[in-house]
Each structure stands twice: as C-alpha cells, then as structure tokens.
C-alpha cells in the first residue's frame, strides 16, 4: 500500500465496509474484522459471542467486533448512549435493552450501507428511541455534553487520527459520563508488508497503534479512573498471513515478540468544577 493521507484511508475503510454490510456473519467472523482475508484455520478470530446478551438481534450482528464493550459499560435505565461505528446496530440494540424506553441510543457511522441496514433493523424492531446518524466520529454530529455513556467496538483502529476521536468522546460526554471501548492495539512492530497493506488496514490490524500510545492519549485528554477491563491476544492464522508474508517472514514475525491485542478500556469524564478558581 502506498502512503495514503487520512482522507484516502477513510475512503478505503468506507468502501470496504460498504461491501462488508452485504456479507454474512460467518464470512466476517472468519476474517480480520470482515476485511475479506478469510481463514479456514479458525472460525472466530476477533469477535466475541453476543448471542446470550439481552437485546441481541441476529440481523444486526455482522461479526465485526473484538470485544463486548456494552457488557462493562455500566449503562442504566434512562441513559443516553452513543455508539461509535454502529454498523448494523447490534451494540445499539443491546444498549437499548438496558436504557429502556426512557433512554436514548444514537449510533454514528459513515457508511451509507451500514446506516441503511441499521435503520431497517430498528424499524423491524419498532424502536423509536434508537437513532442512526451519518457522520465522521472525528467530528460527531452530536452536541457537547450529550451522552451519559459512549461505547465502541473495534472501530477506533480504523480511524487515522485516534486522538481526535478521543477528544470528541470527551466533548460529547456529560461531566461524570464515561466510555467503554473495545479496540485493537499493538505491542511491538508489525512487518512492513502487513503495515502497508490496504486489506490489513481495513481489517483492523495495520491501523492499530501501540498500546502505550493508545492509553497515553486517554490520559492526556483528561479522562479519569482509566481501567483496562479486559485484554486478550489475537492470533492471526497462517493462511491469512501467507497472503502477505513468505513462510520465513511468518516465522520471523512469530518469533519477534510482537503482540496484537484486543482490549476493552473504561474511563470517565471528570465531573465539572463549578467553584470559582478551582479549575
């Protein structure tokens, strides 16, 4: 992949996820975030099993996640929840089962096909307090201090400027609100042939940043009570790696100590300070 700027990377992801919206769950779950580099070695590379969670809807589950952020999101009845990269709506519908009819769920996605699919699913379910908005999560179509909770599942790794997204999360959260995000991060360096490959960028891996950098962003922006709720190592099967690396290069990669991890992170926006001179 030649060096691309941020807008070219976004367009790459938009085009790929428009295709993914039309794929079935089995195809997506056997690939890297649905990227198309499907494996016969394992069924489920990254995604977790949602099917036992209340609110789960099979039509909305495209098998694209890398965690269960809603499970640890501490949502409650009446909350306003924003889901970043909402896809076909799975996390939104699970959130709605918690916040109830008195709450509100807003899904944001920048792929028309995903927005259309999510809206169709919401209409079939008869949910009038689940809304899907077209937009870039670096510039959310949401007013400041709107959300009690922000969730996202395997999406920030697809965004070139992750710092901007985290700043936007801080902006849209109410003081005292919090986020729960599942994502892909790295420890160590990926081989150049993977890092520069478009398919692996759209597949969540080559767009991931170092875990220390990711956690540093969250702290620098001003979030508090930051916690790594879950972490698991992702193993990319040889039949996917062989699309990009020789056998010797695959062996070198495995011996390099580089790790690809799915993490779920929780953090809070501090409560507003109102007394003069205290901020």
Q: Keyphrases for this structure?
A:
single chain; 279 residues; alpha/beta; Rossmann fold; 7-stranded mixed β-sheet; 10 helices; 21% strand; globular; disordered C terminus
Tell me about this structure:
It is a single chain. With 279 residues, this protein is α/β, with parallel strands linked by helices. The chain has a single domain, classed as Vaccinia Virus protein VP39 (Rossmann fold), CATH 3.40.50.150. It is built from ten helices and seven strands. The protein has a seven-stranded mixed β-sheet with strand order 3-2-1-4-5-7-6. β4 (147-153), α5 (162-172) and β5 form a beta-alpha-beta unit. α5 packs parallel to α8 (211-221). The chain starts with 5 loop residues before the first helix and ends in an 11-residue tail after the last strand. Residues 28-35 and 274-279 have low confidence and may be disordered.
At the third CATH level, what is the topology name? Answer: Rossmann fold
Q: Name the CATH homologous superfamily.
A: Vaccinia Virus protein VP39
Q: Outline, from the CA principal axes?
A: globular
Count of individual beta strands: 7
Rg, Å, rounded: 18 Å
Ends apart, CA distance between termini: 46 Å
Number of domains: 1
Helix fraction?
25-40%
Please tell me the CATH architecture by its name.
Answer: 3-Layer(aba) Sandwich
The overall pLDDT, averaged over residues, is: 83
The SSE string, one letter per element, is HHEHEHEEHEHHHEHHE
The total of helices stands at 10
Structural class: alpha/beta
| Regions with little confidence, pLDDT below 50 for 5+ residues | 28-35, 274-279
């Amino acid at each position: 992949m030649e060096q691309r700027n941020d807008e070219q990377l976004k367009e790459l992801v938009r085009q790929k996820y428009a295709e993914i919206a039309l794929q079935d769950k089995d195809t997506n779950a056997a690939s890297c975030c649905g990227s198309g580099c499907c494996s016969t070695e394992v069924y489920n590379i990254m995604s977790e099993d949602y099917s036992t969670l209340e609110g789960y809807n099979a039509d909305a589950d495209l098998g694209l996640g890398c965690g269960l952020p809603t499970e640890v999101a501490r949502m409650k009845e009446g909350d306003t929840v924003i889901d970043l990269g909402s896809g076909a709506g799975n996390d939104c519908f699970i959130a709605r089962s918690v916040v109830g009819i008195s709450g509100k769920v807003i899904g944001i996605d920048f792929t028309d096909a995903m927005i259309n699919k999510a809206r169709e699913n919401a209409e079939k379910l008869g949910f009038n307090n689940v809304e899907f908005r077209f937009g870039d999560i670096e510039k959310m179509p949401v007013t400041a201090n709107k959300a009690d909770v922000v969730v996202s599942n395997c999406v920030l790794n697809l965004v070139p400027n992750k710092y901007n997204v985290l700043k936007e999360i801080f902006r849209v959260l109410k003081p005292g609100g919090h986020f729960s995000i599942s994502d892909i991060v790295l420890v160590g360096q990926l081989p150049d042939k993977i890092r520069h490959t478009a398919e692996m960028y759209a597949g969540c891996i080559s767009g991931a940043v170092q875990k220390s950098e990711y956690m540093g962003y969250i702290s620098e922006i001003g979030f508090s009570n930051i916690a790594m709720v879950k972490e698991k190592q992702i193993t990319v099967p040889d039949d996917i790696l062989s699309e990009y690396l020789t056998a010797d290069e695959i062996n070198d990669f495995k011996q390099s100590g580089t790790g690809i991890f799915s993490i779920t992170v929780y953090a809070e926006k501090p409560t507003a300070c109102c007394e003069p001179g205290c901020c």
